[in-house]
Write a structure and sequence with these properties.
The complex is a heterodimer of chains A (271) and B (113).
Chain A lengths: L5 E6 L7 H14 L4 E5 L7 H4 L10 H5 L5 H4 L1 E2 L6 E4 L12 H14 L2 E5 L6 H8 L3 E6 L3 H16 L5 E8 L1 H5 L6 H8 L3 E6 L3 H8 L3 H4 L4 H13 L17 H8 L5
Parallel strand pairs in A: 1-5, 1-6, 2-4, 2-5, 6-7, 7-8
Antiparallel strand pairs in A: 3-4
Helix pairs in contact in A: 1-12, 5-6
Chain B lengths: L2 H8 L6 H18 L3 H18 E3 L5 E7 L2 E7 L2 E4 L10 H17 L1
The chains are: A alpha/beta (271), B alpha+beta (113).
């Protein structure tokens, strides 16, 4: 087993905050940077990673057949069309939830670790068995959250569980940042979320309509639309994961036009 | 407080919602993180006081045991005003004579129980 393989759990607690989108885009970005990367869909109940990567029609076997030894791992792995460094291990049937154990997840991840430098695990929402199985197989974690009370509260629960289970390091990605709302103080600020959750910030991702367009096409943003705001954010996150030091985007500077200066003035702390 | 907050206050408008969100989150998280029901906390408080009372005389009415959360660390904070220790050193305004009597009484009480 390759000892330097990084097994990263991508989790959030709350659903719909952008775990799968982040997994898909980080997978593409890391593959583009020359790293052999596997993305593992651990959401057996509601799998979607195949759809976001545009690989849904090429699935023959899944993690289920690998575990039941009905096929070899390389038969189940789906290589990405354009980025050959990236492979997907699809989630099995929802019925797997009845019998899959933490050690089964561990076995799959160990198999993947032999072949890949990065193993990204797309975790199901919630803090139940699906999450615990995935956590058991991971070494480090990225917690995705949005600047909203419910997402932050759920993230806090997840962080507590990761801490007590010795997952290290745990880093934060703040997704769907709306600079204008933040400037108007109608959205929790980056510092608010960072302070409340007390985690190092791996990156933030700006709200971007192109994310929906890319999902429609099954082509993650980082594949073709590398100039869109969110794509830049994802690429930066991948580079920071690799150890590069890249400054965070300042949302206040992302607002164009005359209003920006005024909004910054209004944010001045008096006391 | 920011410039916006002050202007809003002057205009008697509702403050921007981010600060409300922050305050509500901090409250709900302090509760989530402690993960102890008030019953359990009460029981723990009682037992802690009993143990401490074996060694020092404390003011049971003034004592407070609570959970405080900061930076993902939850601390159990106990504030127990000590009247005096059981080996007889005066902690409060008591004469040397009273101290001797009281400590003897207390020590007797402990061995009996």
């Amino acid at each position: 087993m390759a000892t330097d393989t990084r097994v990263i759990l991508i989790c959030s607690g709350k659903g719909g905050v952008g775990k799968t989108t982040l997994t898909a885009n980080l997978g593409i970005s890391l593959a583009r940077q020359g790293e052999t990367t596997a993305v593992l869909d651990a959401d057996f109940g509601l799998r979607n990673l195949d759809l976001l990567l545009g690989l849904e029609n090429r699935i023959v076997y899944t993690a289920q057949e690998v575990l039941e030894e009905e096929c070899r791992l390389d038969q189940a792995l789906v290589k990405h069309k354009q980025e050959s460094n990236l492979s997907l291990l699809p989630a099995g049937n929802p019925r797997m939830l009845d019998w899959i154990k933490p050690d089964d997840m561990k076995r799959i991840v160990e198999m993947l670790s032999d072949q890949f430098k990065y193993v990204l695990i797309d975790c199901p929402a919630g803090v139940e068995d699906g999450f615990k199985n995935a956590m058991h197989a991971s070494k480090e974690a990225i917690v995705v959250t949005n600047p909203e009370v419910s997402a932050v509260r759920d993230a806090d629960r997840v962080i507590g569980l990761l801490n007590t289970n010795g997952i290290k390091p745990v880093q934060l990605v703040l997704n769907r940042v709306r600079p204008k709302m933040m400037a108007n103080q109608e959205m929790l600020s980056i510092d608010d979320v960072k302070d409340i959750l007390a985690l190092p910030l791996l990156g933030l991702v700006l709200e971007d309509e192109q994310v929906i367009v890319s999902t429609n096409r099954g082509e993650p943003l980082t594949l073709n639309s590398t100039n869109s705001p969110a794509a830049k954010c994802y690429l930066n996150i991948a580079r920071r994961l690799q150890g590069e030091e890249i400054a965070l985007i300042d949302p206040a500077k992302e607002i164009a036009g005359f209003g920006a200066k005024f909004r910054r003035l209004m944010q001045t702390k008096i006391f | 407080m920011t410039l916006r907050d002050i202007i809003y206050k002057l205009l008697r408008r509702q403050p921007a919602s981010a600060s409300t969100a922050r305050e509500r989150l901090q409250l709900v998280l302090a509760h989530d993180r402690s993960d102890l029901s008030t019953d359990l906390l009460d029981q723990m408080r009682k037992e802690i006081l009993e143990v401490v009372a074996k060694y020092v005389e404390i003011d049971m009415d003034e004592g407070a045991v609570s959970l405080e959360t900061e930076d993902r660390m939850t601390a159990l904070v106990a504030n127990l005003p000590i009247k005096r220790t059981l080996n007889g050193q005066i902690k409060l305004l008591e004469t040397a004579k009273e101290k001797k009597e009281k400590s003897e009484n207390l020590e007797g009480g402990l061995t009996n129980s």
